[in-house]
Amino acid sequence: MSRKLSAAHRRIACQSRLFASLPAELSGLLLDAAHVVRLDRGQILFQHGDNATAIHVVADGWMKLYRIAPSGTEAVVGVMTRGQSFGEPIALRRAAYPVSAEAVTGCELVAVPAHVFLDLLKTHPEAAISILSATFMHLQGLVEQIEQLKARSGAQRVAEFLLELCPPGADSATVVLPYDKALIAGRLGMKPETLSRAFARLRGLGVRVNQSSAAIASVSRLEDLAQAEAFGAIGRVI
Prior knowledge:
five-stranded antiparallel beta sheet; alpha+beta; 23% strand; four-stranded antiparallel beta sheet; RmlC-like_jellyroll; 10 helices
């Protein structure tokens, strides 16, 4: 189902990495041609190998980007939420998507037709800066993700994930887990049983996890764990 953008949709889209560096008048031209796509949980937006025809910004909910390995194992490439855009370089090249995208909750997406953005680039070459900026931020995110997978323990990865959910400046917090634990494990590059062991290890820091939320007694202790650079230091934190 698709419909026209509301003022709230336009405001959220303008906060994304794609639109953040665009002049307001150019953003307006693109959003005038955009529409909202609504997806139910589990609904596929596109599949690996489909031709890319639009750039998407998440207005509400969570989207999973993933690939299926030849063995049948699912590899989660990213999980996108409100204000995050995806598919920019692929859509502008009119190439095939290298991943699949699935709604892991009910979602609303702002879809900008790729041909509209390409036409804008021809008449306003300065708009290319927004694409370069978005591509750089995406690359930076991938580098950080690789660092997290290679240089962080399972407990550190979980700590960083929980800290992202905490309100800024909070001393303690109870946060809602935005999606199920199997997807959290996939996003963090773990098996579900490894995630369970990491949650158990964090109990020593006052973290209590149930089915859909996590109670964090001390945000600062969790930050100390996330920032520890060596396993010796991690041992002193926990």
